[in-house]
Each structure stands twice: as structure tokens, then as C-alpha cells.
Amino acid sequence: MGLGWGGSPIGRASTPMGESALVEALTLWPKLAEYAGLSEYEAKIYLCLLGLGCSGARRISALTGVPRTKIYTALRRLIEMGLIREMPGNPSLFAPTPPNEAFGALLSVARRRVEDFSTLLTMLMGIYQASRELHHPLRGEFWYIDGGDEIMLRCRELLRHSRYSLLILAGGLSLSLLFNDAHRELDELYERGVEVKIFSPLHPEMNHLARELSYLFEVRRMPLDVSILLLISDGGRLLLAGVEASGHRGRLVEAIYSEDQLLIRLLSRLLEGAEVETQLLESWES
């Protein structure tokens, strides 16, 4: 003899499932109670009947540990819920409704609730995104580029893919570096008819590099010599690199690439402001 729920004896040949299998099935009661809205006693009784096939109240009580004073109340509720049925006799026997029939409607309701909640979640995300666009700063996307050779490779690619316009902001070191390492791409820009505008502190009348570039492109003088190289291609792609002195020439040390339209617009406005300042400076000097 083994022990069932509440220490009640279980005959080894008395259950079709076998003692150990029935005990294991009864451990499922918490999940069944949670998902099906049953009490502990009701869940244990249903699981017990699944293992037995059919049984009387006294045997169910012994196997599940449900007190005899509570067993009939729980059985009546299960009958009302359609989870078990009573077979007349003396004593009465009880049998379970197959799980797919017993809980099929409940599962359908649960699936509909999941679908409805998924639809609601989509609507809430739409409201959230609209709110962020109206009231919160937007996060841009940038790519960090390290290493002088890699940065120059990206600069040359940007020049090659420019189709309509190219804005260049370069200090003395960075303009010389760009000209030496990307002179072929600069020539191709001129051949393709790309509108190139260069902002640099180098004066075309006093610097041979600025003078040579001015034969091909519009070169605008700016009063500050900045240690950066800024390229804006077709108003939609941007590369901003830092430059530092290295011997007799500069070298690119770090850069970012972005297609963030807000950043490009802001920097383009900065260059427009620099162009106005340059025009005023040239007017004053003349």
C-alpha cells in the first residue's frame, strides 16, 4: 500500500494510471486552478478522475486528500461547470469530461483575449511614438570610425557617391590631407558637374592649394582654422572627422558618419552662417 493525499492509502492495482503517475498528475493542480479558475479541491478532483477514468466520492476523497465534508460540494460545482458528469448508481460514480471539451471554450476565449490585447498594444505603441515625436528629443544614429586609413577610405567613398552637391569644411591641415589623398575623387567631382563648395581659412590669393581648388570649385574663406574635416554629401550624408598634426602633414584620428537629417540641417545652417560672415569679411577687406 502507498500513501495518497493526506496520508490516505492507495492500492497499487486500484488506479489505471498507477500510483506514481496519479500522484504526479495531481501535482498539476496549481496550474489547472490558475488557468481554469478552479479551487484547489476542484482541480485535484478533476485531475484524479482523469487518472481513474471514473470513481466514487469516497475513493476520490482518499486519493486527493479532499475532506469528505467538502467532496460533494466540489463535485457539484464541477458538474455545473461541465467538467465532470455523474453516473447514477449506488453509490454514484463520477467521470471526467475530456479536457478538449471541458476547456475548449475557455481556450478560445483566452486566444481572443490575447489577440485583442495584441491589437491594443499596437495602438498604445502608436500613441507612444506620436507622443515621443511631439514632446521628447529624438535619438539619432551615428557610426563611429577609427583609424586614419579607414576614415580616409570613407571620405573617398563619400566623394565618389556624391551626385548633386558637396559641402566641405576644412582647416589648413585637413584640406591639404583631403587634396593629397583624394585628388582623383575631387577631379571626378568636377567632371561629373557636382556643385562643390569649400570653406577653409586658406586664401586663394595667398595659398597655392586654395588657388588650385578655386579653379574647379567655389572656395570660401572662413576666419577660423579648425582641426576638423566636415563633408556633407547631397544634403543627406555626413562625415565629421578630427584632424591632428603629424610631422609636416595632418592625420585623421577619429570620425563619425551619419545620415541624421536634423544634424545635417543644423551643420548646413552653420556653414551658411559662415558664408555670410565670409562675404562680410571679404567686403570689408576690399
Reconstruct the topology from this structure:
Blueprint: E1 2-3, E2 9-10, H1 19-26, H2 29-36, H3 40-52, H4 57-64, H5 68-80, E3 84-87, E4 93-96, H6 99-135, E5 142-146, H7 148-161, E6 165-170, H8 172-181, H9 183-192, E7 195-200, H10 208-214, E8 218-221, E9 228-233, E10 237-246, E11 249-258, H11 261-285
Parallel strand pairs: 6-7, 7-8
Antiparallel strand pairs: 1-2, 3-4, 5-11, 6-9, 9-10, 10-11
Helix pairs in contact: 1-3, 2-3, 3-4, 3-5, 4-5
Structure report:
The protein has eleven helices and eleven strands. The protein folds into two domains: about 100 residues, Arc Repressor Mutant, subunit A; about 140 residues, Endonuclease, Chain A (2-Layer Sandwich). It has about 290 residues and is an alpha+beta fold. It is about 55% helix and about 20% strand. Strand 10 and strand 11 form a beta hairpin.
